[in-house]
Amino acid sequence: MATPSKPSEAMSFYDIAMNQPSNCCAPNPWKSRLALNFKNIDYSTIWVSMPDITRVRRGLDMDASRKFGDGTDFYTLPVLVDPNTNSKIGDSFDIAIYLQAKYPNSGAGDLFPPQKLDYVFNPENPLLVPLSERKDSEYEEYSKFNTNVDAVFTNYIGLGTYNFPFDPAHAEACKNIFIQRAGVKSWDDFEIKGEVREKMKESFRVALGDLSKLFLKDPSGPFILGEQACYADLIVDGWLRMLRVTLPANEWEEVKGWHGGIFGRLHDGLEKYAEVK
């Protein structure tokens, strides 16, 4: 039987609700949204408030994809439900693999063209939010790259945490979730300002230096492979789209201009795959 170029029925995509769809900013769902649009897949978004994620994910009979340091389950999104194959996928990287495997001929091309992705980031301190631990022999370069990109951006997520655009109906509950995870006393403890903030921004800029070098391999840009986007580009842009919403506007412009404007060109180059459906 021939591989279908596109699914016949629309998929359901579960993302974390913010105060409005245009302000969705969870990076892993963004990676999947970009991949769905890249592959030209018909889908609709189901918005889930943060306090309801565990209930919804369990209701879909989906296990937690990660665990906190104490061994407790970390229930998060995205989840993709494909009625065409009766499949449910609950991890952003697995969603990309699934889309490429089931619908290889759909959309803008191969999400995983072979390439070497030489980037490593080792945080000095343990990260509050656990990263996915996985072993992928087929896409090992992309899997390692995903983990390291997640690590560097997560290490500096504090720059935007205080400005998360929570759904007003659930804002206090969402803030309490963050407070409990971080082990702080109040939401105000997340505010970073003054000299401390400037030093943290500079540290972040330096930390992204090695990552920016990957985008110089092919000068035709704006992607790692030049004019052809792939999942590695989507991984980085998923985080950039969080920063676009959570950083003050002037700081977002700074980030876009770092390292010769590498990240601004990447973000703008993927705008055609960023429709929120």
From TrEMBL:
PROSITE patterns: GST_NTER (PS50404). Transmembrane segments: none annotated. Residues 16-107 form the GST N-terminal domain. CDD domains: GST_N_etherase_LigE. Gene3D superfamilies: 1.20.1050.10, Glutaredoxin. This is GST N-terminal domain-containing protein. It comes from Lunasporangiospora selenospora.
